[in-house]
TrEMBL record:
Residues 1-58 are annotated as: Disordered. Residues 20-49 have a biased composition (Polar residues). It comes from Chloropicon primus. This is HTH cro/C1-type domain-containing protein. Pfam families: HTH_3, MBF1.
Amino acid sequence: MNMNPGQDWDQVIIRKKKPSSSQTKDSKNVNNAFRSGNVDTLNKFSGGSNKKAGPANATKLDASDEAFAHKKVSTDLKKAIQQARMAKKMTQAQLATAINEQPKIVQEYENGKAIPNNQILGKIERALGVKLRGGNKKKGKK
């Protein structure tokens, strides 16, 4: 029993609409405006450039004759860490496990290549039971 005799559900037809004459005129006007150069454009900061520029103050650093470097672990500190670790009969890996850091970190501290971090130094002090920082201050006589 078919209610709508004129409707066929098996076949679907999609018709594309042709653009109206006003739409084609608008697109022609836009193309002509681009060709004649009457279009305002807005340039973003360094937009459209493929330059790999560094920060603005990089030239100041390059022009400076001072040598800038991070502070490294002192010789006294690296020796103190090594001696305290050896006294506890621990390997670098065991110390690293005790302070919950990678063995590479302990190795860098003992080689003097690490940038001192007070949190890591505190962990090392607690694990080894020694005071590594602030103990070398000389007191004047009163």
